[in-house]
Amino acid sequence: MKKIVVLFFAFILVNSSYGQGNFSLGNNVASVGIGLGSSLGAFGSSTSAPGISLQYERGMWDVGGPGVISLGGFVGFKSYKYNNVYQQKWKYTVIGLRSAYHYNGIESSDFDVYGGAMLSYNNLSYSDNFPYGYLSNGSWNSYISLTLYVGGRYYFAPNVAVFAELGYGISYLNIGAAFKF
What whole-number distance in Å separates Cα of residue 170 and Cα of residue 121? Predict the structure, then answer.
Protein backbone atom coordinates (compact mmCIF):
# COMPACT_ATOMS: atom_id res chain seq x y z
CA MET A 1 0.00 0.00 0.00
CA LYS A 2 2.84 2.41 0.81
CA LYS A 3 4.29 1.86 -2.67
CA ILE A 4 0.98 2.79 -4.32
CA VAL A 5 0.71 6.03 -2.33
CA VAL A 6 4.35 6.95 -3.07
CA LEU A 7 3.90 6.22 -6.79
CA PHE A 8 0.69 8.27 -6.84
CA PHE A 9 2.42 11.33 -5.37
CA ALA A 10 5.49 10.86 -7.59
CA PHE A 11 3.22 10.81 -10.64
CA ILE A 12 1.59 14.03 -9.48
CA LEU A 13 4.95 15.79 -8.96
CA VAL A 14 6.46 14.71 -12.28
CA ASN A 15 3.53 15.15 -14.65
CA SER A 16 1.89 18.55 -15.16
CA SER A 17 0.44 19.69 -18.48
CA TYR A 18 -3.09 21.10 -18.47
CA GLY A 19 -2.97 24.14 -16.20
CA GLN A 20 -6.52 23.86 -14.81
CA GLY A 21 -6.03 23.10 -11.15
CA ASN A 22 -5.83 26.18 -8.97
CA PHE A 23 -9.04 26.63 -7.02
CA SER A 24 -10.74 30.01 -7.59
CA LEU A 25 -13.59 32.05 -6.24
CA GLY A 26 -16.86 30.57 -7.55
CA ASN A 27 -15.39 27.16 -8.47
CA ASN A 28 -17.52 24.11 -7.66
CA VAL A 29 -15.88 20.73 -7.13
CA ALA A 30 -17.61 17.41 -6.47
CA SER A 31 -15.50 14.43 -5.42
CA VAL A 32 -16.02 10.74 -4.85
CA GLY A 33 -13.47 8.81 -2.84
CA ILE A 34 -12.58 5.50 -1.31
CA GLY A 35 -11.00 5.38 2.12
CA LEU A 36 -8.08 3.44 3.50
CA GLY A 37 -7.69 2.92 7.24
CA SER A 38 -10.14 4.27 9.79
CA SER A 39 -10.50 5.29 13.40
CA LEU A 40 -14.08 4.07 13.34
CA GLY A 41 -14.56 0.72 15.10
CA ALA A 42 -11.99 -1.92 14.23
CA PHE A 43 -12.52 -5.34 15.71
CA GLY A 44 -10.09 -8.27 15.85
CA SER A 45 -11.71 -10.75 13.50
CA SER A 46 -14.18 -8.53 11.72
CA THR A 47 -14.63 -7.89 8.03
CA SER A 48 -14.70 -4.33 6.86
CA ALA A 49 -15.98 -2.49 3.80
CA PRO A 50 -13.78 0.39 2.63
CA GLY A 51 -14.97 3.87 3.48
CA ILE A 52 -16.84 5.64 0.68
CA SER A 53 -17.21 9.41 0.59
CA LEU A 54 -18.93 12.11 -1.45
CA GLN A 55 -17.79 15.70 -1.14
CA TYR A 56 -18.83 19.05 -2.54
CA GLU A 57 -17.21 22.45 -2.13
CA ARG A 58 -17.51 25.94 -3.56
CA GLY A 59 -14.94 28.75 -3.57
CA MET A 60 -16.60 31.32 -1.31
CA TRP A 61 -14.09 33.90 -0.08
CA ASP A 62 -11.02 35.41 -1.72
CA VAL A 63 -8.65 36.18 1.14
CA GLY A 64 -6.47 38.64 -0.77
CA GLY A 65 -3.34 36.50 -0.84
CA PRO A 66 -2.55 33.43 -2.85
CA GLY A 67 -5.64 31.51 -1.83
CA VAL A 68 -9.38 30.99 -1.60
CA ILE A 69 -11.53 29.65 1.23
CA SER A 70 -14.15 27.07 0.30
CA LEU A 71 -17.29 25.86 2.03
CA GLY A 72 -18.99 22.57 1.36
CA GLY A 73 -20.38 19.27 2.57
CA PHE A 74 -19.26 15.70 3.17
CA VAL A 75 -21.11 12.38 3.40
CA GLY A 76 -19.26 9.15 4.16
CA PHE A 77 -20.17 5.54 4.92
CA LYS A 78 -18.21 2.63 6.40
CA SER A 79 -19.32 -0.71 7.82
CA TYR A 80 -17.94 -3.62 9.83
CA LYS A 81 -19.33 -7.10 10.28
CA TYR A 82 -18.33 -9.57 12.98
CA ASN A 83 -19.29 -13.23 12.51
CA ASN A 84 -18.86 -15.73 15.28
CA VAL A 85 -21.76 -17.83 16.49
CA TYR A 86 -23.91 -14.74 15.97
CA GLN A 87 -23.54 -11.82 13.59
CA GLN A 88 -22.96 -8.20 14.61
CA LYS A 89 -22.98 -5.21 12.22
CA TRP A 90 -21.74 -1.66 12.74
CA LYS A 91 -22.58 0.99 10.13
CA TYR A 92 -21.03 4.43 10.37
CA THR A 93 -22.45 7.42 8.52
CA VAL A 94 -20.59 10.73 8.71
CA ILE A 95 -22.35 13.93 7.60
CA GLY A 96 -20.27 17.07 7.76
CA LEU A 97 -19.81 20.73 6.95
CA ARG A 98 -16.29 21.48 5.65
CA SER A 99 -14.23 24.55 4.98
CA ALA A 100 -10.73 24.67 3.50
CA TYR A 101 -8.02 27.11 2.54
CA HIS A 102 -6.82 26.43 -1.03
CA TYR A 103 -3.27 27.68 -1.54
CA ASN A 104 -2.74 29.07 -5.05
CA GLY A 105 0.91 30.09 -4.74
CA ILE A 106 2.22 27.03 -6.63
CA GLU A 107 3.65 27.83 -10.09
CA SER A 108 1.88 24.95 -11.81
CA SER A 109 -1.86 25.46 -12.00
CA ASP A 110 -2.42 21.70 -12.38
CA PHE A 111 -2.38 21.42 -8.59
CA ASP A 112 -4.87 22.35 -5.90
CA VAL A 113 -3.44 21.95 -2.39
CA TYR A 114 -5.61 22.65 0.63
CA GLY A 115 -6.13 22.15 4.32
CA GLY A 116 -9.20 22.59 6.42
CA ALA A 117 -11.59 21.54 9.14
CA MET A 118 -14.87 19.65 9.22
CA LEU A 119 -17.67 19.73 11.78
CA SER A 120 -19.55 16.45 11.49
CA TYR A 121 -22.19 14.24 12.99
CA ASN A 122 -20.95 10.65 13.19
CA ASN A 123 -23.89 8.26 13.40
CA LEU A 124 -23.35 4.65 14.45
CA SER A 125 -26.05 2.11 13.66
CA TYR A 126 -25.74 -1.32 15.28
CA SER A 127 -27.59 -4.59 14.71
CA ASP A 128 -27.12 -8.22 15.71
CA ASN A 129 -28.97 -11.51 15.72
CA PHE A 130 -28.38 -12.41 19.37
CA PRO A 131 -31.36 -14.19 20.95
CA TYR A 132 -33.59 -12.34 23.44
CA GLY A 133 -32.33 -8.86 22.48
CA TYR A 134 -28.96 -9.28 24.24
CA LEU A 135 -27.77 -5.91 22.92
CA SER A 136 -29.93 -3.02 21.79
CA ASN A 137 -30.21 -2.59 18.03
CA GLY A 138 -30.47 0.91 16.57
CA SER A 139 -28.46 4.12 16.65
CA TRP A 140 -26.19 4.49 19.62
CA ASN A 141 -22.87 6.04 20.53
CA SER A 142 -23.31 8.73 17.84
CA TYR A 143 -21.45 12.00 18.36
CA ILE A 144 -20.42 15.38 16.93
CA SER A 145 -16.79 15.72 15.88
CA LEU A 146 -14.39 18.42 14.74
CA THR A 147 -11.63 17.10 12.46
CA LEU A 148 -8.72 18.48 10.45
CA TYR A 149 -7.54 17.41 7.01
CA VAL A 150 -5.00 18.23 4.29
CA GLY A 151 -5.16 17.23 0.66
CA GLY A 152 -4.29 17.83 -2.92
CA ARG A 153 -5.74 17.45 -6.37
CA TYR A 154 -3.93 16.96 -9.65
CA TYR A 155 -5.87 18.00 -12.77
CA PHE A 156 -4.92 15.72 -15.66
CA ALA A 157 -7.78 17.10 -17.79
CA PRO A 158 -9.39 20.56 -17.77
CA ASN A 159 -12.07 19.68 -15.20
CA VAL A 160 -11.11 16.21 -13.95
CA ALA A 161 -8.62 15.48 -11.18
CA VAL A 162 -7.38 12.75 -8.91
CA PHE A 163 -7.13 13.59 -5.24
CA ALA A 164 -5.61 12.35 -2.01
CA GLU A 165 -6.63 13.58 1.41
CA LEU A 166 -5.27 12.80 4.89
CA GLY A 167 -7.33 13.37 8.02
CA TYR A 168 -10.19 12.06 10.08
CA GLY A 169 -13.42 11.71 8.21
CA ILE A 170 -14.60 8.30 7.24
CA SER A 171 -10.97 7.17 6.75
CA TYR A 172 -7.41 8.30 7.43
CA LEU A 173 -6.60 8.44 3.71
CA ASN A 174 -9.14 9.12 0.97
CA ILE A 175 -8.24 8.82 -2.70
CA GLY A 176 -10.50 9.31 -5.66
CA ALA A 177 -11.70 11.54 -8.49
CA ALA A 178 -12.79 15.19 -8.42
CA PHE A 179 -14.85 17.07 -11.00
CA LYS A 180 -14.78 20.87 -11.36
CA PHE A 181 -17.82 22.64 -12.78
Answer: 11
